[in-house]
Specification:
There is one protein chain. The protein is an all-alpha fold and 147 residues long. The chain folds into 2 domains: 36 residues, no CATH class; 82 residues, no CATH class. It contains 5 helices and no strands. The radius of gyration is 29 Å and the shape is elongated. The termini are far apart.
């Protein structure tokens, strides 16, 4: 690690201490230059060497973005479906018992919210699905507490 940042300052702004520690013998190519021909791969290699290629090897994380999004969709949809089934099962069990009518209604409403969360999660709206899952479980918990 060279201790340098990835941005280069202008020569007029550099201090004497920075110039004393400057070990880059090759001039850096102008990024605003019109010619982007054969020098482009070499310039990229020099930029990697200059900035420290080890630090930036996987910094952007784009190579796993599709896999992470797919995993988040499956997780949101699966969790929503599981909580929906659990909520409807609890509503049916409470409906047959001596509980007040508010309890099975709360379970059914919470299960419906979780079903909506599963639908949103499968379509990629995983943040909204997470919040709807939380709301659905809280509605079921409030219904259980009113028993």
């Amino acid at each position: 690690m060279s201790g340098r940042t990835d941005s280069d300052t202008q020569d007029g702004i550099r201090t004497d201490a920075t110039e004393a520690h400057d070990t880059d013998d090759m001039p850096r190519p102008d990024p605003l230059a019109e010619d982007s021909g054969a020098d482009a791969p070499d310039a990229r290699e020099r930029d990697d060497e200059y900035a420290g290629a080890d630090e930036y090897a996987g910094a952007d994380g784009d190579e796993y973005a599709g896999e992470d999004a797919r995993r988040a969709r499956w997780t949101a949809a699966g969790t929503g479906a599981l909580l929906t089934l659990a909520g409807f099962a609890a509503a049916l069990l409470r409906l047959t018992g001596p509980a007040p009518a508010l309890v099975p209604a709360a379970y059914a409403l919470g299960a419906a919210v979780c079903a909506l969360a599963a639908l949103l999660g499968s379509r990629g709206r995983t943040r909204r699905a997470l919040w709807l899952l939380i709301v659905g479980v809280m509605v079921m918990a409030v219904g259980d507490q009113s028993d």
